[in-house]
């Protein structure tokens, strides 16, 4: 009589079966989606990192010497966007461009731009694609008497007579205005009347609204002075400002040929670098290394999954089968998220994914160990499950939160490779909570609601562990 009352007070079998069917259908859709990505039958595909796909990695160091420290982060982001836009024009498949800081404790941390070009193994070609982007600057010519005197000595070759103050004056011969190529929205080739009477190629620039205002303020406040135009540190020309220019346009001249003017216009249209950069290192990654990483990662994942499956079946019996199905659903959800976010798969990321499989099963161990205690104490299976999920939740929650915090620290302070591992670990931990508390519960509720004292085959299969 007690058994019947307990069964009637539980969730009806139809609802429990419906929950399990929904999970099975979801697993089926995820399986079809993942299989399609692997076989290439739809547009989604796994995004491979440089260490897997092979290619070229370029590391540039940005010169932030003359940049306001408060502006460095913003300019580095602009630099990344400009380089990405330029590389996309060359049709490189899925380039990865990101910024990083070399040292968080140094007085002058190195700000780096990392460019990863999958499939590009010609370093000279890769460097040309990046290095062709010009750095355009507009500077006022400093006509202070001490500067002119120092320049006169320098022009006459009297280097030994230059005082430290005069050397400083030479360094400050041009005054930064803050107007650079980052404000250029368009650049086209034009022609102007040269000094010889013939038309010569020039580059007509159009500034954005911020650049237009800055250019108007500069030309309005310095009428009669010279505004020098520098390209990659070399002065092209230094025309005199006759009046304020408020139209948001400027002309760059510098004895260009038609071909060089076109190259400059195209480069500026792609985006001028907001700050100078220099190439620090290059590296070529062989695609065969990536193939080995994938094969070894898959083998490691299968071995791990197989060992966990064996352990669960031998130790937890019927409950172990439930855990295996929930773990399979976990793997499918993770692969689907990797495809749709999308997550760039690296060797470190694959390691994080394999490790997260162990984390995913840890919650099931806590749940079914608690279930064993309740079931052996005489509780019906469904009552034991309800208690085990309820009492195991605090430990599952606290353990996973600790893992997420640790992974978040790795992601925040680590390099790109460490970040790939940390991100997969965070993602896997979050999905494991859903897998344990929802998917495992949905299948576990399909187990028959019996007691250990009934001494049936099913009760023996539910009497887990030692």
Could you list some keywords that capture this structure?
Alpha-Beta Plaits, alpha+beta, SecD/SecF_arch_bac, Multidrug efflux transporter AcrB transmembrane fold, Gyrase A, domain 2, 17% strand
Summarize the topology.
Layout: H1 2-9, H2 13-39, E1 47-48, H3 50-53, E2 55-62, H4 69-89, E3 96-101, E4 111-118, H5 123-131, E5 136-141, H6 145-155, H7 164-171, E6 174-180, E7 184-193, E8 199-207, H8 209-221, E9 227-231, E10 234-237, E11 249-252, H9 258-270, E12 277-285, H10 287-340, E13 344-345, H11 347-376, H12 381-413, H13 416-444, H14 457-462
Parallel strand pairs: 1-13
Antiparallel strand pairs: 2-4, 2-12, 3-4, 5-6, 5-9, 7-8, 8-11, 9-10
Helix pairs in contact: 2-10, 6-7, 10-11, 10-13, 11-12, 11-13, 12-13
Domain SecDF P1 head subdomain: 176-275
Membrane topology: Multi-pass membrane protein
Domain Protein translocase subunit SecDF P1: 79-142
The percent range for strand residues is 15-25%
Q: Specify Rg, calculated over alpha carbons.
A: 33 Å
Described by strand count, sense and barrel closure, the largest sheet is: 4 strands, antiparallel
Measured distance between first and last alpha carbons: 31 Å
Beta strand count: 13
- CATH C-level class of the largest domain is Mainly Alpha
Q: Provide the CATH architecture of the largest domain.
A: Up-down Bundle
Task: Indicate how many domains the architecture comprises.
Answer: 3
Helix-and-strand structural type: alpha+beta
Order of helices and strands: HHEHEHEEHEHHEEEHEEEHEHEHHHH
Q: How many helices?
A: 14
Which fold name fills CATH's third level, the topology of the largest domain? Multidrug efflux transporter AcrB transmembrane fold
- Overall geometry: elongated
Please mark out the parts with pLDDT under 50 across 5 or more consecutive residues, or reply none: 1-9
CATH superfamily of the largest domain: Multidrug efflux transporter AcrB transmembrane domain
Helix % is 55-70%
What spatial order of strands do you see in the largest sheet?
3-4-2-12
pLDDT average, as an integer? 80
């Amino acid at each position: 009589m007690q058994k019947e009352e307990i069964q009637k007070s539980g969730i009806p079998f139809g609802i429990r079966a419906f929950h399990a069917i929904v999970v099975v259908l979801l697993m089926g859709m995820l399986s079809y989606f993942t299989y399609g990505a692997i076989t290439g039958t739809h547009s989604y595909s796994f995004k491979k990192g440089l260490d897997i796909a092979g290619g070229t990695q370029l590391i540039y160091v940005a010169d932030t010497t003359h940049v306001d420290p408060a502006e460095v982060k913003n300019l580095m982001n602009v630099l990344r966007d400009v380089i990405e836009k330029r590389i996309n024009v060359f049709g490189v498949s899925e380039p990865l461009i990101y910024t990083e800081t070399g040292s968080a404790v140094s007085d002058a941390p190195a700000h780096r731009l990392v460019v990863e070009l999958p499939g590009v193994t010609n370093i000279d070609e890769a460097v040309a694609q990046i290095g062709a982007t010009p750095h355009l600057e507009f500077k006022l010519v400093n006509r202070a008497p001490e500067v002119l005197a120092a320049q006169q000595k320098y022009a006459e070759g009297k280097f030994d007579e230059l005082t430290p103050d005069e050397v400083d004056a030479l360094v400050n011969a041009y005054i930064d205005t803050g107007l650079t190529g980052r404000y250029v929205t368009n650049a086209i080739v034009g022609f102007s009347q040269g000094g010889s009477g013939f038309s010569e190629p020039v580059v007509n620039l159009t500034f954005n609204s911020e650049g237009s205002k800055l250019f108007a303020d500069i030309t309005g406040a310095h009428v009669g002075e010279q505004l020098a135009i520098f390209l990659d540190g070399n002065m092209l020309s230094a025309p005199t400002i006759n009046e304020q220019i408020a139209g948001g346009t400027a002309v760059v001249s510098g004895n260009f040929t038609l071909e060089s003017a076109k190259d400059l216009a195209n480069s500026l249209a792609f985006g001028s670098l907001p700050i100078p950069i220099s190439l620090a290192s290059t590296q070529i990654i062989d695609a065969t290394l990536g193939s080995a990483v994938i094969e070894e990662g898959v083998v490691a994942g299968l071995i791990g999954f197989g060992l966990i499956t064996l352990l669960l079946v031998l130790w937890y019996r019927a409950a172990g089968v439930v855990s295996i199905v929930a773990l399979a659903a976990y793997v499918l959800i993770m692969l689907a998220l990797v495809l749709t976010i999308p997550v760039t798969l690296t060797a470190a990321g694959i390691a994080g994914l394999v490790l997260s499989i162990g984390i995913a099963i840890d919650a099931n161990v806590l749940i079914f160990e608690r279930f064993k205690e309740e079931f052996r104490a005489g509780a019906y299976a469904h009552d034991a499950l309800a208690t085990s999920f309820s009492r195991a939740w605090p430990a599952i929650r606290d353990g996973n939160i600790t893992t997420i915090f640790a992974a978040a620290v790795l992601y925040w302070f680590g390099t790109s490779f460490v970040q790939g591992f940390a991100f997969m670990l965070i993602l896997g931990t979050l999905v494991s909570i859903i897998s344990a508390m929802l998917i495992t519960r949905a299948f576990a509720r399909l187990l028959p609601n019996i007691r250990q004292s009934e001494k049936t085959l099913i009760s023996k299969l539910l009497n887990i562990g030692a």
